[in-house]
């Protein structure tokens, strides 16, 4: 029997305990031994929950118990998770986490520490919830150079954009609805401003380029300025607006970007709706691939955490190499990326033509006091120059 | 340096050699050592190809060379691939294959032999080409009980159905076009009759239920009787016809089936077009997930083979457990599956009502000499009874 500890008995932590119970037998068969939860670390007590008898309030109790070989961290946030996880690795325990903030900031360091201690630090659940994208990048797509990763990695904003698209609702209304349904938090900043997606693409990009990508370096736009009018333009073009977190290999490095983007119906991510997540990957020999699933939620995320527990149980004395070094990667300026741009401006068509040359004008019934158009493909830098020349810009959304 | 041999220098085999060349450095880094092709086994000679100096005609040369630790089998067909692969495993060499016929028929036996010899037998490329579905089932979704797998796993038929849907073409015309483009073979039987998809779902089902599922036991319908008229009905309902290979856990076992199916726009597989493949998986805790990519083609398939080579290079002295025993699983009768059915009949609406009760009639402009309708959900057995009562059945397609 392998004893484990769970740090943080919130949504994901309690989901981990539940999944270990629901699929006890098949998990034991795959892990080679039964997995038993010995401790649950939480500040709170749960007097009406059978878990109470496993609750501890001091992480040192877990650190000091040599019976605990594997620790699950589902507390969220960088501190005190970082201190606790470090201590567990130092004590020779394997750790898996669902905590994207911790992984984005301290991933490389914790991977190095795990290697030093001949244990594993895993984080499948930190990106894409139940979608096995981390293990796919580390263990499956090993014959490829990954040249592009583009993901819908935030369920809250994807739900909101889907509702705005289906119902013609405004951002504020759909946010209130999402909060009422529990799909958005009371303080939705991290989701709607793109900060959550930013940390996730930082993790994925670090794994692809095998160096530390600091999330602060990634140009990040959220969906707060996406309006019902934008959605109407998108529909008129047969497109959908999605919040994409993307990174791309360019000649001299990598570009990363989080921004709303217009996709046409032929793009594999076009049909990823509601709270679902999906990650599109282009490999230099594999070509296009996509991984789709529940990007959040108690059980799907816990499923990914427990899959890490099984993997670690099978490798109790083996460090599985993860290629993510502490050396920092300087990203290439995102304005180097070439795309088409959808623009709304208060300027007239003549002015648009003078600034942008040949464009494709888009008309939407009932919208007459502005001018919407699609540019030719150009770099972000070129777009900015031309937009400044034009003036009166009301909105710009990249097109893929 | 790790020496390998490639058996079969056809499309996939030469793709493997090419991928090892294209991504030599990154593959070496991930494998821990450089991978070098020492032999290529083929009956033919390739006098104008630099590969000629590695060509051998007798597999025993490879068997007898202890320097060769890993062997790639890309010959196709059960024999002589089976004899060769067995000999390689017996000699303590790891083997990866892209050969679905071999894996479907002899997978359990070769896995057992590999375990006995403490080497690995891997077959990522045998299903879904470059899509890492085998490794996902074996190593990623380990916290779940997989309750359903539904795949578009044959690129040829998916291309044909896409073209029929887009262009209103008839089966025969689109087959000729697919053959001209190299998407269908001169003898297209294995693809269009569903035999290829059948072997693939046999492999996936075996991995899920951990027992041997004989492909001969799987009820298999191809797409040869799908007509332009069927496509017009599907369109009238906002649906698409896809050849699905599916297996589902039921109360007392597993059901497996290969058949054309009508999907509506909300199904994750609805938008999988052209030669792309995708595999939808439902896990009891994960919920819905989907894996999408190039299901065939030289480099994508070779990418999956080489990923196996990397995995084996990292586990030269370790057998990675694969849970697929020799014990045969008796499948549950596919007629137990419940679904709605789309039916075309020469009978009139009154007769339809008498046989099937409440149905949804479907009308297509210009089609007046027959009656198309959607049944309520029922079992396949119930459908058959009612269809016999009705008579004059022109077509039946399951609906998901």
Would you give an account of this structure?
- 2 copies of one chain form a homodimer.
- With 400 residues, chain A is of the alpha/beta class.
- The first copy, chain A, folds into 3 domains: 2-130 and 298-314, Rossmann fold; 144-294, Dihydrodipicolinate Reductase, domain 2, CATH 3.30.360.10; 337-399, Alpha-Beta Plaits.
- In chain A, 37% of the residues lie in helices and 25% in strands.
- Chain A has helices at 11-22, 24-31, 59-63, 81-90, 100-116, 133-140, 155-167, 171-180, 189-192, 195-209, 228-236, 298-314, 349-356, 380-390; strands at residues 2-7, 35-41, 55-56, 68-73, 94-97, 121-122, 146-152, 219-220, 239-250, 253-264, 276-283, 287-294, 338-345, 360-362, 371-374, 378-379, 393-399.
- In chain A, strands 7, 8, 9, 10, 11, 12, 13, 14, 15, 16 and 17 form an 11-stranded mixed beta sheet that branches.
- In chain A, helix 1 (11-22) packs across helix 12, helix 4 packs parallel to helix 5 (100-116) and helix 5 runs parallel beside helix 10 (195-209).
- Chain A is elongated, with a radius of gyration of 23 Å.
- The mean pLDDT of chain A is 96.
- Chains A and B meet through helix 2, helix 6, strand 11, strand 12 and helix 12 of A and helix 2, helix 6, strand 11, strand 12 and helix 12 of B.
Q: Largest beta sheet of chain A, briefly?
A: 11 strands, mixed
Fold-level CATH name of the largest domain in chain A: Dihydrodipicolinate Reductase, domain 2
Q: How helical, in percent, are the residues of chain A?
A: 25-40%
Give the strand content of chain A. Answer: 25-35%
CATH architecture of the largest domain in chain A: 2-Layer Sandwich
Distance from N terminus to C terminus of chain A (CA atoms, Å) equals 50 Å
Q: Runs of chain A with pLDDT <50, length 5+?
A: none
- Within CATH, the superfamily of the largest domain in chain A carries the name Dihydrodipicolinate Reductase, domain 2
CATH level-1 class of the largest domain in chain A: Alpha Beta
Number of domains of chain A: 3
Biggest interface, residues from each chain: A-B, 55 and 55 residues
Mean pLDDT of chain A: 96
Radius of gyration of chain A: 23 Å
Structural shape of chain A: elongated
Tally the helices of chain A.
14
């Amino acid at each position: 029997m392998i004893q484990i500890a769970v740090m943080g008995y919130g949504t994901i932590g309690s989901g981990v305990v539940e999944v270990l119970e629901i699929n006890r037998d098949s998990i034991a068969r795959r892990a080679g031994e039964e997995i038993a939860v010995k401790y649950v670390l939480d500040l709170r007590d749960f007097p009406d929950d059978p878990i109470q008898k496993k609750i501890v309030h001091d992480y040192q109790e877990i650190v000091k118990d040599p019976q605990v070989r594997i620790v699950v961290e589902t507390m969220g946030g960088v501190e005190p998770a970082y201190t606790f996880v470090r201590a567990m690795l130092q004590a020779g325990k394997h750790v898996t986490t669902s905590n994207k903030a911790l992984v984005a900031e301290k991933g490389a360091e914790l991977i190095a520490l795990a290697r030093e201690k001949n244990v594993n630090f895993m984080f499948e659940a930190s990106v894409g919830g139940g979608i096995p994208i981390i293990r796919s990048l580390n263990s499956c797509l090993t014959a490829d150079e990954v040249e592009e990763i583009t993901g819908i990695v935030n369920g809250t904003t994807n739900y909101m954009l889907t509702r705005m698209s289906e119902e013609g609702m405004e951002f504020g209304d759909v946010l209130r609805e999402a909060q009422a349904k529990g799909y958005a938090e009371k303080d939705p900043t991290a989701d709607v401003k793109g900060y959550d997606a930013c940390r996730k693409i930082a993790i994925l990009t670090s794994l692809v380029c095998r160096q530390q990508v600091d999330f602060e370096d990634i140009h990040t736009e959220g969906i707060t300025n996406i309006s019902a009018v934008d959605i109407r333009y998108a529909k008129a073009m047969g497109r959908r607006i999605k919040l994409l977190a993307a990174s791309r290999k360019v000649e001299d490095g990598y570009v990363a970007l989080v921004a709303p983007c217009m996709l046409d119906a032929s793009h594999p991510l076009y049909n990823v709706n509601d709270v679902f997540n999906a990650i599109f990957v282009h490999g230099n020999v594999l070509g296009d691939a996509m991984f789709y699933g529940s990007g959040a939620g108690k059980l799907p995320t816990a499923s990914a955490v427990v899959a890490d527990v099984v993997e670690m149980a099978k490798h109790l004395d083996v460090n599985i190499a993860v290629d993510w070094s502490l050396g920092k990667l300087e990203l290439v300026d995102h304005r180097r990326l070439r795309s088409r741009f959808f623009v709304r401006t208060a300027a007239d068509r003549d002015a648009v033509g003078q600034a942008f040359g040949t464009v494709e004008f888009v008309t939407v019934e009932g919208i007459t006091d502005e001018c919407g158009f699609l540019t030719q493909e150009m770099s972000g830098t070129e777009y900015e120059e031309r937009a400044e020349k034009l003036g009166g810009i009301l909105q710009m959304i990249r097109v893929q």
